[in-house]
Write a structure and sequence with these properties.
Blueprint (H helix, E strand, L loop, with lengths): L1 H78 L13 H26 L21 H5 L7
Length: 151
């Protein structure tokens, strides 16, 4: 009788372990499916980003080539004495924005240099007639504050 009980206990234990293994295998298969779908979505998004990046690089390379060709033509015309008025083409919209931004930044930088280097140090760049030695133009701060700004 002890032998039979122990075999039943062992058989019940084996069935219980087998059932747990099937449940674990099923859960693992579900998790694998979820991860596979997430990986597929990730690959799709990375592929789209890569295609967009390649298109952007191609457009920039085309623009660089056009600008190089324009530069070569302009320099050749200048060196041959032909002038560049008819050769220079308008800048692309992105370049126009960059130039406008650079001009604004240069104006701000010039104002800071004027404020700290000249106005803050008793106007060493200011001529007697109100001209700036650094820029060669009339000093805007001196003209606006003619009564308070002295040399």
């Amino acid at each position: 009788m002890t032998v039979t009980i122990s075999t039943n206990v062992v058989a019940t234990g084996v069935r219980s372990v087998a059932r747990q293994d099937r449940v674990a295998a099923r859960e693992l298969a579900i998790e694998h499916g979820v991860l596979t779908r997430q990986m597929a979505g990730l690959q799709r998004r990375v592929g789209e980003q890569l295609r967009a990046h390649v298109q952007q690089i191609a457009a920039l390379e085309d623009e660089v080539m056009r600008l190089r060709a324009q530069l070569i033509v302009s320099r050749t015309c200048l060196l041959w004495g032909l002038g560049v008025a008819g050769v220079v083409r308008p800048l692309p919209r992105r370049a126009q924005h960059a130039v406008a931004s650079a001009v604004a930044s240069m104006a701000e930088a010039s104002q800071v240099i004027c404020q700290t280097g000249c106005v803050g140090h008793a106007h060493p760049w200011l001529e007697d007639d109100g001209q700036c030695r650094r820029t060669g133009s009339a000093c805007e701060l001196y003209m606006s504050n003619a009564g308070t700004a002295t040399k």
